[in-house]
Model the fold of this input.
Amino acid sequence: MAEETEKIIVTIDSELSGLIPGYLINRRSDIEKVSAALDSGELEAIRAIGHQLKGSGGGYGFDFITNTGTAIERGAKEKNYEEIRRHIAALGDYLDRLEMVYD
Done:
């Protein structure tokens, strides 16, 4: 079993190196937006953010973000607040442990 502090290494195309820091900052912002939307019951906003994550992660080499976006979008459609919370927490943990290697 992996320890919670174990780094997650993702190899990224070096041509994307200038875009990655901003992309990841925006994903942290998404966590805050989803958390706020959970508090106010704005499931459509959560669904839209999940959909965006689903569409963008893989293009940058972050399949985990794509999969998490899919789960968040599904959670919003099913009104499953606990699933959304679980996946947002997992996204935060992923971002905390993420380490990029550029090739």
